[in-house]
Amino acid sequence: MGPVLSLRDVHLTLQGNAGPVAILRGISLDVHRGETLGLVGPSGSGKSSLLMLMGGLERATGGTVQALGHDMTALDEDALARFRRGRMGVVFQSFHLIPTMTALENVATPLELAGQSDAFDRAADELRAVGLGARMDHYPAQMSGGEQQRVALARAAAPRPAILLADEPTGNLDGTTGEAIMDSLFGLRDRHGATLVLVTHASDLALRCDRVMRLRDGRIEGEDRQQQAAQ
Amino acid sequence: MTPGWRIARRELRGGLSGFWIFLLCLTLGVGAIAAVGSVRAALESGLARQGSVLLGGDAALRLTYRLATDAERDWMADHARQVSEVVDFRSMAVVGEDRALTQVKGIDDAWPLRGQARFEPPLTVAEVLAGRDGLPGAAMDPLLIDRLGLRIGDRFRLGVQDFVLTAALTREPDALSGSFGLGPRTLVATRALADSGLLSPGTLFESSYRLTLRPGDSLDGLRAEATQYFDAGMRWRDSRRGAPGVETFVERLGSFLVLVGLAGLAVGGVGVSAAVRSYLDAKTPVIATLKTLGAEGRTIFAIYFLQIGALTLLGVLAGLALGGLAPLAAAPWLQSRLPIPAEFTLHIAPLAEAGAYGILTALIFTLLPLARVERVRAAALFRGIGADARTWPRKRHLAALAAAVLALIGTAASLASLPWLALSVAGGVVAALAALWLAAQGLRALARRLARQPALRGRPVLRLAVAAVGNPREGVAAVVLSLGLGLSVLATVGQIDANMRRAIAAELPDQAPSFFFIDIQPDQLAGVLDRLDGDPGVGAVDTAPSLRGIVTAINDIPARDWGDHWVLRGDRGVSHAAAPPPGTELTAGEWWPEDYAGPPLISFGADEAAEIGLSLGDRVTVNILGRDITGTVANLRRLDFRSGGIGFVMIFDSAALAGAPQTHIATVHTDPASEAAILRDIGAAFPNVTAIRVRDVADRVAEAMGALASATSLAALAVLATGFVVLIGAAAAGERARVFEVAVLKTLGATRATVLASFALRSALMGAAAGLVAVLVAALSAWAILTQVMELDYRFAPGSALAVIAGGVLATLAAGLVFALRPLSARPARVLRAQE
């Protein structure tokens, strides 16, 4: 079986005020089904950009990005949006919940967009799974940061995506809450058997992944398997 | 229910807090149009329902210059249930040495056939006319009573007939059916005028026979029979359009004010657009999140289109409630001040019109900001970028925008009484918006350049202000567009008003005569000229024979088939001359020999001939006193009505009209000191001769135009009020950014005075720019209207322009400084910590 995500010689150059800035310079990697991959590196190394390329949220300026056998670089914005439905879940550091929607509605939205008739029932199950069964009708502003991130996790996991992408999901949380979020994230991954790509600064979180890729200046600096990383 | 609609409903839970400018702009714009339309509909409905009262009967047959013959009277008696005869003419009411122009109405015992006249003291018509001490009675307009210093029971004279004033005429039911009167009304019995010398052959008077229908008769049937029986000089009017002049005036003024209201809605549209942009900017993370979750561009567009649509409906409904109910609330006040009957109720048509304008305007001004949401990329979540403003909107959005613009202009043009006026106003608004947008872009670019100039270094107040004007986030475009368009409308009214007042007040007396004397009988002409010739205070005197005639046919084709030109509409002054009158300027053809005695020839006004489509050699048939005279156009003459002199559109050769009963008209230039003596002497020697002071006429016209200018200014102020709301919206939207800006500046050592001065300067700069462009737009519009439509000269009126620029500066200063108060009082530490 081929890789779930496959990147070949991927470049990303953005146009800044002072001229073009090379964010990613020739990244090639494969991620396999069910695998967990940690992306680590200093600020500005390009790890978040790499994650967004994998999710089709950013468009590569060179090379190819394939997800589940589809060439993401050939799809337009709307086709990418349709592709993500039910296949990819994304979790952000800043949660990005929709403030005018309750927790339940936030989680149900991707299911509704995918045309699921039981969107709200499934969303409720997902919220109960992350321990927020009692907070379904609360708005984001009425919840703590940890609770908001758990809603975001539930929202990403609700459509049972094949790929879960998480961009520093604990970056805005204290240590204990962050720990609980990571438990939830890995719990969801284990339950649904999704492939997980996780961007993090925290080496202890990266250690929970099967594989850790180190980035620096837009290039892959090195790669550690779980056993090596632990050492 | 689609996901788009469900998500839109959830998004609306955010409330209306960010939308009060949006709603206020729509409510004000739609409300103003709905109110103007409702008042117009109330007046039109009142005029339609009161048609027979306004006319004084079910139908009226009008004759010029003569009373009906006995045979005609018999015909009317046979064909109507009731007949009432009314004569109408200008004359002088004389009290001792004092004399005043008056419009005399001679009535019979049957008047009024419809409606009721009111007098003070409350007498019946018969009691008023009965008089006292052997003298016939009369009622006068209270204005005229005041002017002549009369009291009830006092005597006055018309021609050589004495009358006693028995009452003040407080309500004349058929006052609006006549033509534009130059003097206030005097009501007398026609039989009492028999010895006044005022209804001699050739005198300018009009008779009107009001008829009521017999049971079973129809207006159309009676009209057909009357047209067949009477000569072509008879004019028919019936209760279906009892006061056509007033109806047309109401319709046109209403249409014009609705168009001014549309300009206001366009100003509101700028605010609506800015509000939607600002809302959608704030929604960028939500849009990007929805994209991340799999929402397509169309779904996102639908989500926000539905939201803005719902808010638009709310704003439009609020505007309709305001515009529909405000005239109802003001009905008692309006009714007591209007000379026209009105039916104040909820009129659906004008509300539907205003609603359609509101929805289309909102669509036009929100479509492009809404279209941009499709371009928001999911990457906005982590890169802090919104939609790329430079990308060209999708074709379907541009097509929808074009369709909405066409629908709006098409609706306005089809509903306006003068489609060309609607199209011109629409063109003007679009051109003004384009000019203002360009000016805003230019100002921003200039400010950006200026802010980098070394000359501004070391002058932080100025540099900060200029840099802020150059900042795309400062909302310069919204301020300049909204305030500028409002000021443009006001400045245009100001420029036109100033020029017309100047034309009347300053330029008229330079060229115009001091008096017109009318109704000079042929045997009185020598006497009048003798009196004038011997007076050293008298300058030029012109005289001409004067008759009234109706153009009935041109080249044997009925005149009505030649269009609705004013020369063909009613009866016109006609003269005759052997030699060209002094100052005649022929543009085509030649004047006839002085002893010409062949078939009738006509000298026609050149512009009027061109407008009607007449050329040399065409045959014009004019009905004068019931007789058709056909003349051939021998030459065309340039006519300048602005000079106020004698200006007949049609002059026949003398032989053609020599036998017709006629009077003479004279214009006299005098110095002011001689005026009173001339009036007194001619009035005493020739009591039937009426003197009209040109200055009085000019004052009446200026008064009427002043009222028009006031109505238009009021509408322009409503436009400006909407502009001010947009301005406040822009200032309020910038408040949060200013809080941060002030905090940083204070941290860097700026005092509050420095910051305040910089804020004031940036506001003043934007206001001045809006005012300047508005004055340019107004000068151009006023020039076009005055020179192309009104055929008047245009001269820039600096006073009004300065006031507009000052108004622009003050408005932006006020809005800017009010919203600077919170930023100035905020503590920097709190603000900066909150940003982290």
From TrEMBL, chain A:
Top-level taxon in the UniProt lineage? Bacteria
Which residue ranges does UniProt annotate as crossing the membrane? Answer: none
Q: Which Pfam families match?
A: ABC_tran
Domain ABC transporter positions: 5-231
The UniProt entry, under SMART domains, shows: AAA
Q: Which InterPro entries did the record assign?
A: AAA+_ATPase, ABC_transporter-like_ATP-bd, ABC_transporter-like_CS, ABC_transpr_LolD-like, MacB-like_ATP-bd, P-loop_NTPase
Q: Which UniProt keywords apply?
A: ATP-binding, Nucleotide-binding, Transport
Cross-referenced PANTHER family: IMPORT ATP-BINDING PROTEIN, TRANSPORTER, PUTATIVE-RELATED
Instruction: Tell me the protein's name.
Output: ABC transporter
What organism is recorded for this protein? Paracoccus acridae
UniProtKB/TrEMBL annotation, chain B:
So which domain of life are we looking at?
Bacteria
The places in or outside the cell where this protein is found are: Cell membrane
Keywords from UniProt, A to Z, are:
Cell membrane, Membrane, Transmembrane, Transmembrane helix
- Membrane topology according to the record: Multi-pass membrane protein
Q: Which InterPro entries does this UniProt record tie to the protein?
A: ABC3_permease_C, Membrane_comp_ABC_pdt
Q: Which residues form a coiled coil?
A: none
Q: Mainly resides where?
A: membrane
Q: Which residues cross the membrane?
A: 256-280, 301-334, 354-373, 398-415, 421-440, 714-733, 768-789, 801-821
Q: Where is the ABC3 transporter permease C-terminal domain?
A: 260-373, 715-825
What protein is this chain from?
A: Drug:proton antiporter
Lineage of origin: Bacteria, Pseudomonadati, Pseudomonadota, Alphaproteobacteria, Rhodobacterales
